[in-house]
Automatic annotation (TrEMBL):
Organismal lineage: Eukaryota, Viridiplantae, Streptophyta, Embryophyta, Tracheophyta
SUPFAM superfamilies: Pectin lyase-like (SSF51126)
InterPro entries, A to Z: GH28_Enzymes, Glyco_hydro_28, PbH1, Pectin_lyas_fold, Pectin_lyase_fold/virulence
Annotated GO biological process: carbohydrate metabolic process
UniProt family annotation: Belongs to the glycosyl hydrolase 28 family.
Organism whose genome encodes this protein: Brassica campestris
Coiled coil ranges: none
Keywords: Glycosidase, Hydrolase, Signal
Protein name: Pectate lyase superfamily protein domain-containing protein
Any matching Pfam family: Glyco_hydro_28
Signal peptide start-end: 1-21
GO MF entries: polygalacturonase activity
Length: 451
C-alpha cells in the first residue's frame, strides 16, 4: 500500500521531533522569569549623576553598583534611572540587581575612546584585546535590565567611522555583554545606534529577552542585534530588530579556539519577531560556530527589506556543527535571498586553524514559509568532504523574480514547495531524520569578529 507523500512527510517530521526529544524544548519562552520586587531601591541621582547629556556619569554608576552589592544576600536591589540623558562610559553590574530605566530615561554611551577600557578577547575567539562593552557582567546570577521603555543609545556613528577607516586598534564595544552568567532578563527597552552588537550573552544560561526594540541606521557596518553565543536556554520573543547586519545571530566560537573551549549554543527558542537587515540576515547561524549550535526552535517571524531571510554559515576549519533546527511560520517580504546555507563563508582567527576540522550541518527543518518580492528562493552550497544533509522543506511558497534555487553538496527532502527546488532536495523523506556525525568573512569583518 502506498502512503501519501504528505503523510510520509508528517511521519518524518514527527520522527525528527521524537529523536530530538526534550533537548529542543519549545517551552523555553513559556518559563517566564519571575519578576519579584527588589526589597531595596536607590536612584542614580543619589550618587551625584546629572542627566543633561553632557556630564560624565561613569563614576556615579560605578559607585551605585558598588553600594548595591551589599544587598545581594538581602533579596537584591534596584538601581532606578529617572528621565534624562545620562552620559557614561563602561560600568559593571552585580548579582541580584535590577537596572530600571524609566520612560524618558536614556543611557548615552560616551563617544570618547578614552572612556572605554580594553579587555582580553573571549577564550573561544582567540588572542588580543577589545573594548569593554557599555554594560558588563561576569559570573553574575539573577540580573534584570528593564524599564518603562527606557533607552540605551550607543552613539555608534563615531565607532562606525573609525571601523570603516581602519583606525581602530581593537574590536568595537557592545552595548550589553554578560559573560558566564545565569538567570538574565532584558525587557521593555529600546536600543539605538550600537557601536557593534546590541546584546551579547556569552557562556550564559537561562537568558530571556523580550519586548525590546533595537534599531540602527541602514549603513551601520556589521552592527548586529542579539548574539546568543555559547549559551543555553535562551528565549528571544515579542521584539522588533532593525539593524545594518544580522538581527539575531547564533554563534559558539571561532576555529580552534571555539573547538577547544567546546561550549555549544543549545536549547534556544526564538518567536514572534519582526526583523529587518538590509545587508545581513534576519536569523543567522554562524559563521563562528566551532563549539556547535543545536536544538533551536524558531517560529512566527516577519522578515522584510533584508538581504537574506535565514542564513546558515560555516567554512572549512570551523569544526563544530549546526543540527536539530526547526524554523516555521515565516513571512518574507522584499528579501534578496530567502534561505542561504553556505559552507564557504567567513575568515579565520589566525593561520593556526585546522583545515581538516570540517563542520557538519544536518537535520534542519523549515516549514510554512511565505514570501513576496523574493529574488532567489534558496542557495545551498555545502562542503565537498562534509555535505549538508537532512535539509528538509515543507509548505514553502515564494514569489521569486530570478533563478529559483542553487544547490551543491547538499541533500534533503521537500514537500509542497514552490518554486520547485533543486533535485538534491527531493530525495526520500527518510532523509529528514537521518543522523549526522560530528567532524573533528571577509577581512573587513575581523574587527567585529575578534571577541
Amino acid at each position: 500500500m502506498k502512503i501519501p507523500v504528505a503523510l510520509v512527510w508528517l511521519l518524518a517530521f514527527t520522527n525528527v521531533l521524537l529523536i530530538r526529544g526534550e533537548s529542543n524544548d519549545a517551552t523555553i519562552c513559556k518559563d517566564h522569569f519571575m519578576l519579584d520586587p527588589r526589597p531595596h531601591s536607590v536612584s542614580i541621582l543619589e550618587f551625584g549623576a546629572v542627566g543633561d547629556g553632557k556630564y560624565l556619569n561613569t563614576l556615579a554608576f560605578q559607585n551605585a553598583i558598588f553600594y548595591l552589592k551589599s544587598f545581594a544576600d538581602k533579596g537584591g536591589a534596584q538601581l532606578y534611572v529617572p528621565p534624562g540623558k545620562w552620559l557614561t562610559g563602561s560600568f559593571n553590574l552585580t548579582s541580584h540587581l535590577t537596572l530600571f530605566l524609566e520612560k524618558g530615561a536614556t543611557i548615552l554611551a560616551s563617544p570618547d575612546q578614552s572612556h572605554w577600557d580594553t579587555v582580553s578577547s573571549l577564550p573561544s575567539y582567540g588572542r588580543g584585546k577589545r573594548y569593554r562593552s557599555l554594560i558588563n557582567g561576569d559570573n553574575l546570577l539573577d540580573v534584570v535590565i528593564t524599564g518603562d521603555n527606557g533607552t540605551f543609545d550607543g552613539q555608534g556613528a563615531v565607532w562606525w567611522e573609525w571601523f570603516e577607516s581602519g583606525t581602530l586598534n581593537y574590536s568595537r564595544p557592545h552595548i550589553i555583554e554578560l559573560v558566564s552568567s545565569k538567570n538574565i532578563l532584558i525587557s521593555n527597552l529600546t536600543f539605538l545606534n550600537a557601536p557593534s552588537v546590541n546584546i551579547h550573552p556569552v557562556y550564559c544560561s537561562h537568558v530571556h529577552i523580550r519586548k525590546v526594540l533595537i534599531e540602527t541606521t541602514v549603513d551601520s557596518p556589521y552592527v548586529l542585534g542579539v548574539v546568543p553565543d555559547s549559551s543555553d536556554n535562551v528565549c528571544i520573543e515579542d521584539s522588533t530588530i532593525n539593524v545594518g547586519h544580522d538581527t539575531i545571530s547564533l554563534k559558539s566560537g571561532w576555529d580552534q579556539y571555539g573547538i577547544n573551549y567546546n561550549r555549544p549554543t543549545t536549547n534556544v527558542h526564538l518567536r514572534n519577531l519582526s526583523l529587518k537587515s538590509p545587508t545581513g540576515a534576519g536569523i543567522s547561524f554562524g559563521s563562528e560556530m566551532s563549539g556547535g549550535i543545536s536544538d533551536v526552535t524558531v517560529e512566527l517571524l516577519t522578515i522584510q527589506s533584508s538581504h537574506v531571510g535565514v542564513a546558515f554559515r560555516t567554512t572549512r576549519g570551523r569544526g563544530g556543527y549546526i543540527r536539530n533546527i526547526t524554523i516555521s511560520d515565516v513571512i518574507l517580504s522584499r528579501v534578496d535571498t530567502a534561505i542561504v546555507a553556505d559552507g564557504h563563508t567567513g575568515s579565520h582567527a589566525d593561520d593556526k586553524y585546522d583545515r581538516d576540522a570540517l563542520p557538519v550541518v544536518t537535520r534542519v527543518l523549515m516549514r510554512n514559509f511565505t514570501g513576496e518580492g523574493i529574488g532567489l528562493a534558496g542557495k545551498f552550497t555545502g562542503i565537498g568532504e562534509s555535505p549538508f544533509t537532512s535539509i528538509c522543506l515543507s509548505d514553502i511558497h515564494l514569489q521569486t523574480s530570478s533563478e529559483s534555487w542553487v544547490c551543491s553538496n547538499v541533500s534533503g527532502f521537500s514537500d509542497d514547495v514552490t518554486p520547485e527546488p533543486c533535485q538534491e532536495l527531493m530525495s526520500s523523506p527518510s532523509s529528514c531524520f537521518a543522523g549526522g556525525g560530528i567532524y573533528g568573512v571577509d577581512t573587513a569583518a575581523r574587527g567585529y569578529y575578534s571577541w
